[in-house]
Specification:
The structure is a single chain. This protein is an all-alpha fold. The chain has one domain: Tetracycline Repressor, domain 2, CATH 1.10.357. Helix content is 72%, strand content 0%. The chain has ten helices and no strands. Helix 2 crosses helix 3, helix 5 crosses helix 6 and helix 7 crosses helix 9. The longest helix has 23 residues. It is elongated and about 55 Å long. 25% of the residues are buried.
Length: 213
């Protein structure tokens, strides 16, 4: 009887804590791992460091994630989900400028809620090149979204028919990544003034008024 009791105790120690909210705990682990990743890089994203940050035991971490690669995939999937939500909000607008404005505003809201997301979106590209095992997670969801916006604008007549869709999408991506880098690493606070200038720049150059063409 005593042996069975010990076996049950050992089994519980390797699993999820009794009464814990599984989804909330998993999200907490992913966020902590993203913060560690931003600070130390993929090689420094150890379960030991994550356990210290969350206050959870390493067996508990292993209950949710088999290893570091599994956890990194979860971080990427959450980031993709966030970008997909921002894109869904953006495409509700009928115009290219409206969509870009909505997308930038949605990204700003993400940064306000979670300051670890922007640095990850920037550093993920570096980690992909540094660590070959992460190649399957390397494709950015932002570029296809921007290509869609530009292509739709060409089809609707907002942009010239000879617009090079991929080139313009790449230009937009570089601009947005520059803003994200500023938000992630300068610690300068509110991005409101910068985003307003960015949208004004888009309005004057990328989508000129009819009388300016």
């Amino acid at each position: 009887m005593q042996r069975k009791s010990r076996a049950k105790t050992a089994q519980r120690a390797l699993g999820r804590p009794v009464g814990a909210d599984s989804a909330r705990t998993r999200k907490e682990i992913v966020r902590a791992a993203r913060e560690v990743l931003n600070e130390r890089g993929y090689s420094g994203m150890t379960f030991q460091a994550i356990a210290k940050r969350t206050g959870l035991s390493r067996p508990t971490l292993h209950y949710y994630f088999a290893g570091r690669e599994d956890l990194y995939v979860a971080i990427v999937e959450e980031a993709r989900s966030v970008i997909a939500h921002c894109a869904t909000v953006a495409v509700e607008s009928p115009t290219l400028l409206g969509r870009l404005t909505a997308f930038v505003d949605a990204i700003r809201e993400v940064d306000t809620r979670d300051r670890s997301m922007m640095p990850f979106l920037i550093s993920a590209r570096l980690e992909y090149h540094r660590n070959p095992e992460l190649q399957a997670t390397g494709d950015s969801p932002i570029r296809p979204f921007l290509c869609r916006l530009v292509d739709d604008a060409v089809r609707s007549g907002e942009l010239s028919p000879d617009t090079e869709v991929e080139v313009v999408a790449d230009m937009l991506q570089v601009t947005l990544y520059g803003m994200a880098f500023h938000a992630a690493f300068t610690g300068s606070g509110d991005l409101g003034p910068i985003t307003r200038q960015l949208i004004a720049l888009f309005a004057r150059g990328l989508v000129p008024a009819a009388g300016d063409e």
